[in-house]
Amino acid sequence: MASPPDTSKTIKLERYNSYLRRVNSTKLLNASSKLLFRATLLVALVLIFFFTINYPPLSDHMGGGAHHVHTTHNFLSSAFYGGGVGGTAWEKQVRHSSTPKRPNGMSVLVTGAAGFVGTHCSLALKKRGDGVLGLDNFNSYYDPSLKRARQALLKRHEVFVVEGDLNDEPLLTKLFDVVPFTHILHLAAQAGVRYAMQNPQSYVSSNIAGFVNLLEVAKRANPQPSIVWASSSSVYGLNTENPFSELHRTDQPASLYAATKKAGEEIAHTYNHIYGLALTGLRFFTVYGPWGRPDMAYFFFTKDILQGKPIDVYKTVDDKEVARDFTYIDDVVKGCLGALDTAEKSTGSGGKKKGPAQLRIYNLGNTSPVPVGKLVSILEGLLGTKAKKHVIKMPRNGDVPYTHANVSLAYKDFGYKPTTDLASGLRKFVKWYVSYYGIETRVKREMDINKKISHQTEESG
Ligand SMILES: O=C(O)[C@H]1O[C@H](OP(=O)(O)OP(=O)(O)OC[C@H]2O[C@@H](n3ccc(=O)[nH]c3=O)[C@H](O)[C@@H]2O)[C@H](O)[C@@H](O)[C@H]1O
After folding, report:
1. Range with lowest mean pLDDT among 21-30, 66-75, 355-364, 367-376
2. What is the pLDDT of residue 351?
3. Angle 351-352-357 (CA atoms, 0-180°, nearest 5)?
4. Dihedral angle sign, alpha carbons of residues 324, 330, 333, 334
5. In the structure, which protein residues have their CB atom closer than 6 angstroms to any atom of ligand 1?
6. How far away, in angstroms, is 323 Cα from ligand 1 center?
7. How confident is the model at residue 350, as a pLDDT?
8. Ligand 1 atom 21: the closest Cα is on which residue?
9. For a Cys-Cys bond, which of 118, 179, 207, 232 suits 187, CB 3.0-4.6 Å?
C-alpha cells in the first residue's frame, strides 16, 4: 500500500503564497490610493488655475443678476480673449474710448469697426467728439492685415477696438455693463453677394444669429440704445421698378446674402414691436473708396489691371451692360451720421416695451448707376494701363443686373445728398491704393535705379 503523500510542504507553501497575496494587495491599495490622490490634486490645481483666470471677468458680465448661461463656446471664447478682457486696464480703455468729448455727445458701439464702412464712421464720429468703442472679430474673409492696419489707424485716433464676435453674448453683456451706450452702429456682417454660394453658414451666423444676439443684449440694456444698422441694396433682388424706392418689393432676394439682410429687416421689426428698440436700417448701394474691401470688383480690378492679369466683366444674359449705383464712402458716412443724429430714443427698459418706438429703413445710394465697363475705363485712365477685359455672361451666382437708388426719403429726414461721382471717388481710391500698397514707392525706386544705371553708363562711356 502506498504511503499517503506528505502534504506538510504544500500547506506551508500555500500559507506563504496567501501571505504574499495579502502583502501585495495592501501595497497595491496603497499605491493606487496614492495615485488617485495625486491625480485629484492635479485636477483641482488645474481647475483652480482656470477659474482664477476666467471667473472674475465672466462673473462681472452678470452685472449682479445672472440673466444668462455660459455655453462652452462663450466660455472658451471669453477665455481666448482672456489676455485682459474684463480687467481694470481693459475697462479703462473701453471707457476712455467710448466717452464723448462734446456736450450731449453720443456713446456709440460700432460693430465691424475694423471693416471698411466701420472704420470711416468711427473716425468721423470720434472727430466730432462722440465716444466710440469698436468691436470686430478680424475674420479672414479678406486679408486680415488690412483690418489690422485700419485698427492701427483707429488707435491713432483713440478709438479702441475690442476683438470679439457678435455671437459672444457674455462679451456683449460685459460691454454694456461697463458702458451705457446711447447708440449702436451695427456694421459687422458677412458681406459679399457671390461668396454666399461658397459659405452659406457664415451668412446665417453673422447676419442672422449675430444680429439677434446683439438685439437680445440691447433689449436688456438699461438704457436701451438706439440702433442704426447696415442692410443692403441687394434686398431689392428681382425688383424691376426703377429707381429703387423703399416702398418697392423686397421679397424676391437673388442671393442668400440678400435673404439674410432682408431677414435682418424683419427681425428689426420684431424687436421694435416687442421690446421698443428704436431701429434704423440703411440699404447701402455698392459702397467704394479708400480703405475699401478687397473682395469688391473695383478693388480687385485695380489689383489685376496693375498686375497685367485679365478681369471678367459681366454682361446680362440678354447681352446688356451690368450697372451699379456705386456710392462713395464719404457720402455713406454722412448718411450713417445723419441716421444716428435723427434716431429717437428706444422706449423700453430692462427688456420691457414702454411705448411705440421708431422703426425706419432708408436707401443710401448715389442715384446715378454706372455700367461696369465704364468703371473699368475710368480705372484704366487713372492707372495709365489697359485692362485685359474678358466680357462674359453674368454667372448665376446671386448677382443682379442693375441697381439705382431713390434717396428722397433719406434727404427729407436727414438731408442725405450724395456729392461724389464715380470718377472723383475712384481717383481718391486709386491714390490711397498706390500709397497703401507702396506702388508709388516701387515705381519711384525703379526710376531711381534706372537713373543711376544710365548715369553710371554715361560716366564709364
Ligand atoms: O449694394 C450692396 O448691397 C452690395 O454691394 C456690393 O455688391 P455688388 O454690387 O455685387 O459689388 P461688387 O461685387 O463689387 O460688384 C460690382 C459690379 O461688378 C460686377 N462684377 C463683379 C465681379 C466680376 O468679376 N466682374 C464683374 O463684372 C458685378 O456684377 C457688379 O455689377 C457688396 O459687395 C455687397 O456686400 C453689398 O453690400
Report:
1. 66-75
2. 87
3. 105
4. negative
5. 191-193, 232-234, 284-286, 296-297, 312-314, 322, 324, 372, 394, 399
6. 9
7. 80
8. 297
9. 118
What is the whole-number distance in angstroms between the Cα of residue 30 and the centre of ligand 1? 72
The residues annotated as belonging to the active site are 257
DSSP 244: B
Instruction: Identify the residue with better confidence: 444 or 77.
Output: 444
Q: Which of 296, 325, 328 to mutate to test the pocket of ligand 1 (most atoms within 8 A of CB)?
A: 296
Compute the average pLDDT of residues 133-160: 98
The Cα 191–Cα 266 span in angstroms is 18
Nearest atom in ligand 1 to 314's CA: 27
Q: With CA atoms as reference, report the closest residue to 337 among 233, 249, 413.
A: 413
Give distance in angstroms: CA of 400 to centre of ligand 1.
Answer: 9
Residue type, 264: G
Which atom belonging to ligand 1 lies closest to the Cα atom of 287? 5
- Residue 71 pLDDT > 60, yes or no? no
| Closest to 92 measured CA to CA, from 178, 180, 182, 184 | 178
Higher pLDDT, 113 or 21: 113
Closest ligand 1 atom number to CA of residue 261: 3
Are the C-beta atoms of residues 112 and 187 closer than 8 Å to each other?
A: yes
Q: Whose CA is nearest to atom 9 of ligand 1?
A: 286
Tell me the β-bridge partners of 362.
282
Q: 147-195 pLDDT, tens per residue? A: 999 999 999 999 999 999 999 999 999 999 999 999 999 999 999 999 9
* ipTM here: 0.99
**pLDDT tens string 1-12:** 333 334 344 444
Ligand 1 centre distance from Cα of residue 141 (Å): 16
DSSP β-bridge partners for residue 221? none
Question: Which three cell numbers mark 57?
Answer: 471677468
Which ligand 1 atom sits closest to the C-alpha of 233? 3
Pocket test of ligand 1: the residue of 194, 311, 376, 399 to mutate, having most ligand atoms within 8 Å of its CB, is: 399
For position 9, what pLDDT does the model report? 41
CA of 296 to the centre of ligand 1 (A): 6
Q: How far is CA 371 from CA 280, 325, 403, in A?
A: 30, 9, 10
Question: Are 206 and 234 spatial neighbours (Cβ–Cβ below 8 Å)?
Answer: no
Residue 46 has pLDDT above 70, yes or no: no
433 closest CA partner among 328, 313, 293? 293
**pLDDT tens digits for range 289-302:** 999 999 999 999 99
Pull the grid cell for residue 272: 421694435
Angle between helices 422-436 and 372-383 (to 10 degrees): 50
3 state SS of 76:
helix
